Amino acid sequence: MMAIHFFFPNFEGNGKKSFHQASFVSLRKLHHVDSNNLVKHSCKLTLKALSPSSLERQNVRLALQVFNDNTVGALKEVGNRYEIEHFEDTDEFIRIILTWWKIMNVKSLTVGLRENDEFKQPLPYMANDEKVQFLDNFLNWLERWENMDCKTGGLSKETHAALKVTTNATTEIAVYCNENFGLNFILPGKFQTDNLESRFGLYHQMSGSNYHISIRQLFETEKKIRIRSLLKLGISSKTFGQVLIMNTDLQDFGDVDEGSVVLSFWPSIHVDDKDIEGVREVLGPLTYIAGYCVFIVVKKLKCDACKSNVTVDKTIEIDENYGLIFKLDRGQLLCPTPNAVNAVVHNYIIIKKLCFDFEDDFIASENPRKIALKLSENYLNSENLFEHDCDNKHSHEKILKMLLWSSTNIFLNNYCKEKNNQSIKQTEKQKNRKLQTLK
Q1: Helix axes 130-147, 157-181, angle to 10 degrees
Q2: Which of 46, 139, 351, 373 has the fewest CB atoms within 10 Å, counting from its CB?
Q3: DSSP character for 232?
Q4: How many of the other CB atoms lie within 10 Å of CB of 315?
């Protein structure tokens, strides 16, 4: 049974509180705050991650949807505003486990530089290194946690022992490799059996899901795996023959065909002061999304003039709407200008109207994304709500289209996820209803 609360000691060994309480209820309330919204404070947190089945509790991908930087930033951002209980302790617990995970899963020399994260750098043998000091503090923390002798709200003895052995062995390996092989650092993520387990998983799966396979099945399966690696992935079609599946860039910033737009939407789409006031509670995540859209523009165009027009200097005093960016920033996030934020806000309002006020017609249309993109673009241009001047002759229409393309993808993706969550909830209700009738 999955624990709802965790009672754990202070990580540093000192503090006003003798123990802290992390709660899954806090995370569920955070997820509930974002439900029915096209904008999420915690974009990684999903319903499946918060309510996993018995088998899904062993799924690392779902666990990392809870233990990630976005969840930490979201709890700090909205914990006080929505009176989420134990949000500070929950944030602290996630931060501790997440930091340990980052250190122990480094498999590349450059991932720390690429993501600008000190804890994703290779692990050295030096005792004064920040990562080594964290692992030492982590071992002391586990010791104090075990000595609390809580009957509930803690890790099992086996999990405690596994964490201790793994952490202690990793630091000792770093020292051993330096003393015997002259290595200045190690990659802890390489000391695992994931690849071996994955290979044996293929053996079992391709042998009829049989756990105890024979030598003959092993050789036959290995032969199939090697043949499959040489063949290109394709789909057989009676009309087109063998269609190869290739990794192509599907993004297209070209003109949208007017014929694909349902023009009947246009007279009904209008953004008023009430709509603007309604987005005030989600202005933080909208600003964060605008920052991502600006990053896409800067990355694609590589134009300094455009960058100065769509971003603001982070060193100057900025209002509280940029709080989520600063909570998640490790030095590389961009702060969008109010002009770019305004474009994303209007795009959000228009898509929200399409998804909730004209849902049936919008979903039944041939290309909903192009409709939302064109309507947002037309509205912003007709009201003169977006301006952009570039010395390199990048037009404001092109910049606006690139901004709206990225934000439209995000909002419609969140809409699809929310519909899937509603479907899952409805299925669970039907299961519970059937169980009640059998009692």
Answers
A1: 150
A2: 139
A3: P
A4: 6
Q: What is the pLDDT of residue 434?
A: 66
For residue 256, is pLDDT > 50?
A: no
Q: Which two tokens stand for residue 189?
A: 């993520």
Q: Position 84: which residue type?
A: I
User: DSSP characters for 293-321?
Assistant: HHHHHHHHH--HHHHHHHEE-TTS---GG
CA–CA separation, 402 vs 377, rounded Å?
A: 10
Is residue 280 within 8 Å of 293, Cβ to Cβ? no
Angle between helices 87-104 and 157-181 (to 10 degrees): 40
Q: Where are the beta strands (DSSP E) in 89-129?
A: 123-124
Instruction: State the chain's mean pLDDT as an integer.
Output: 86
Q: How do residues 366-417 score in pLDDT, each as one tens digit?
A: 788 988 998 999 889 888 889 888 888 899 899 999 999 999 999 999 999 8
The pLDDT tens digits of the residues spanning 182-232 come to: 999 999 999 888 888 888 888 988 888 887 889 999 999 999 888 877 776
CA–CA distance, 289 with 325 (Å, rounded to integer): 9
Q: Is the pTM of this model over 0.85?
A: no
Nearest CA to 252 out of 397, 134, 402 is that of 402
Q: Extract the runs of DSSP E, i.e. beta strands, from 13-171.
A: 20-23, 123-124
Provide φ and ψ at 394, rounded to 5°.
Answer: -85, 115
| 188-to-97, 125, 196, 212, 240 alpha-carbon distances in Å | 16, 12, 16, 31, 48
